[in-house]
Amino acid sequence: MEESALMSNAGDESEEDLELNIDEGEDINFTYGWPPLVCCFGAAQLAFVPSGRPANRLVDYEINERMKGARWAPEKIVRAPGSCAGNVALALARLGGKVAFMGKLGDDDYGQAMLCYLNVNNVQTRSVQIDKKRPTAMSQMKISKRGRLRMTNLKSCAEDSLSKSEINIDVLKEAKMFYFSTHSLLDRNMRSTSLRAIKISKKLGGIIFYDVNLPLPLWQSDEETKMFIQEAWNLANVIEVTKQELEFLCGIKPTEEFDTKNNVSSKFVHYDPDVVAPIWHENLKALFVPNGTSKIHYYTKEQNGAVHGMEMASLQVQTCGSTTYFCLC
């Protein structure tokens, strides 16, 4: 996607004041049970990824090397559930959470497989729409000569065709937290639908969690990127950005070599609150900055600090998603 097209998508959004006919009768929240429902909004993709590749930013490389032979079908390409929203929904459900996925799938083999996978893993699919004309979104990831992942996406696809009229209001009424990522803002139609769903959830009392997860086209200019994500950023109550995204948005020149085994101290620095102050806003309650498996940095209005991560060798292929989100829920 071209940079100019991204900025055009951002500039064309002119949402009117949101008016909802909310029933002011008896409060029935107690009927929803525990744990509270989380709505994960966005794409549920199938990613064809090379298995056996450990995550970057590791602290203990030896443990991952020892477990390399235990991974299923190393050196091969495997089909795995992908996307930010899809992975968060699946992982949260596996941890015992109650989660509903809201998005759109194609009426094809991949879409049916993804729908089945969500249901088998106890993710509610009552707010999933099926598109009979467009295919299910897919991502293909390749390892470059330098060992980094390169991803290509199938466009146009069902995930970008969710309309405002297909937003499930009943799920948003029940959900106490609404999760989304920047990927939902890239397509013009999906951006409009995403912002509508965010505003509905916010008006219904939901906590808005924004997993920034900047895609490649938005790494060209920090100023244009901030303009593009500004509306979603200002609506969020909780935001997660990686250390690299924080440095990019704050105009900090990184001092480290990314994706290397050189664990120099600059990789683990905790920035002062004054550094993040320019991107703070009045609706924001917490800002989380995960840094690989080493630390998760946190910022609130009153406090800031970092907690150490926990590292173990993964035996299952995983693409992307928010680890901070699981801790909150």
Specify the biggest β-sheet.
Answer: 9 strands, mixed
Assign a percent range to the helix content. Answer: 25-40%
- What is the oligomeric state here? single chain
Summarize model confidence as the mean pLDDT: 78
Order of helices and strands: HEEHEHEHEEEHEHEHEHHEEEH
Structural class: alpha/beta
Query: Given the structure, what is the number of helices?
Result: 10
Q: How is the largest sheet built, in terms of strand order? A: 5-4-1-8-9-10-11-12-13
How many β-strands, per DSSP?
13
Task: Report strand %.
Answer: 15-25%
Which regions are unreliable across 5 or more consecutive residues at pLDDT < 50? 69-74, 315-321
Task: Please report the distance between the alpha carbons of the first and last residues.
Answer: 34 Å
- Name the overall outline: globular
User: From the alpha-carbon coordinates, what is the Rg to the nearest angstrom?
Assistant: 20 Å
Organism: Hibiscus syriacus
GO biological process, one term: chloroplast organization
GO molecular function: kinase activity
InterPro entries: PfkB_Carbo_kinase, PfkB_dom, Ribokinase-like
